[in-house]
C-alpha cells in the first residue's frame, strides 16, 4: 500500500498485534518510491489491469499524454 510517512510510524506501533505470518503479507510503500510499488504490483497484476492513474508512466512522465 502506498501511504504518507505517518502511516509507517503508526504501523510500527500496531504491527505487534498481528502474527508474523500476517505481517509478512503487508508491505508499506513510501509515497516517494512509486517505482518500487509499481514493480511489485505489476509482478502480481497484469499491467493492462492497473488503472492508468496508478501506472508508473504517470509518475515518470514516460507517457506522451502526460503534460
TrEMBL record:
All residue ranges annotated as the CRAL-TRIO domain in the record: 1-62
PROSITE patterns assigned to the protein according to its UniProt record, in alphabetical order: CRAL_TRIO
Pfam families hit by this protein: CRAL_TRIO
SUPFAM superfamilies membership: CRAL/TRIO domain
Cited InterPro entries: CRAL-TRIO_dom, CRAL-TRIO_dom_sf
Protein name (database record): CRAL-TRIO domain-containing protein
